């Protein structure tokens, strides 16, 4: 089975949270959604909640799928789920990343997304509509 990379489309007040990679050098500075590899024995929702805790230091509730799977190099796929903060007042912080930013519908084109995420922009836009 293809390795699944899950990503969280974390929305608050009509804005989507994006984070800026600090590594590897080829992708540093580019933007993505919080997430990562689903480890053996984990559900996708569990993996997403774990990654959001590790990367943003927040607790999230995972919702419905967003967009279609996007193939990644190496036979992996990127699969996005909507997510919300369990405590909306809690502010995500960039634990491993360079920065985090809440993007409204008009800001989605302002950042340099990873290529796979760029394909998902219509789905992100629909989610914020
Ligand atoms: N988290 C995340 N990864 C993405 C996105 N878009 C995209 O192409 N990717 C790619 C980049 C990486 O090749 C891969 C995820 O790597 P990662 O470094 O975040 O995952 P991980 O923490 O589980 O890393 P590892 O244990 O596999 O090294 O998916 C996205 O929006 N979010």
TrEMBL record:
This is 8-oxo-dGTP diphosphatase. Pfam families: NUDIX. Gene3D superfamilies: Nucleoside Triphosphate Pyrophosphohydrolase (3.90.79.10). Residues 1-128 form the Nudix hydrolase domain. Keywords: DNA damage, DNA repair, DNA replication, Hydrolase, Magnesium, Metal-binding, Mutator protein. Belongs to the Nudix hydrolase family. Transmembrane segments: none annotated. It comes from the Bacteria. The keyword DNA damage applies. Its cofactor is Mg(2+). It catalyses: 8-oxo-dGTP + H2O = 8-oxo-dGMP + diphosphate + H(+). The lineage of its organism: Bacteria, Bacillati, Actinomycetota, Actinomycetes, Pseudonocardiales. Its EC number is 3.6.1.55. The keyword Cell wall biogenesis/degradation does not apply. Coiled coil: none annotated.
């Amino acid at each position: 089975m293809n390795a699944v990379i899950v990503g969280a489309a974390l929305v608050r007040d009509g804005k989507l949270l994006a984070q800026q990679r600090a590594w590897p050098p080829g992708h540093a500075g580019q933007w993505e959604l919080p997430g990562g590899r689903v480890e053996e024995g984990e559900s996708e929702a569990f993996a997403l909640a774990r990654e959001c805790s590790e990367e943003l230091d927040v607790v999230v509730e995972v919702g419905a799928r967003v967009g279609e799977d996007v193939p990644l190099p190496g036979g992996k796929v990127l699969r996005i789920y909507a997510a919300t903060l369990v405590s909306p007042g809690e502010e995500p912080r960039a634990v491993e990343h360079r920065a985090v930013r809440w993007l409204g519908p008009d800001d989605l084109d302002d950042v340099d997304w990873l290529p796979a995420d760029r394909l998902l922009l219509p789905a992100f836009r629909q989610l914020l509509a």
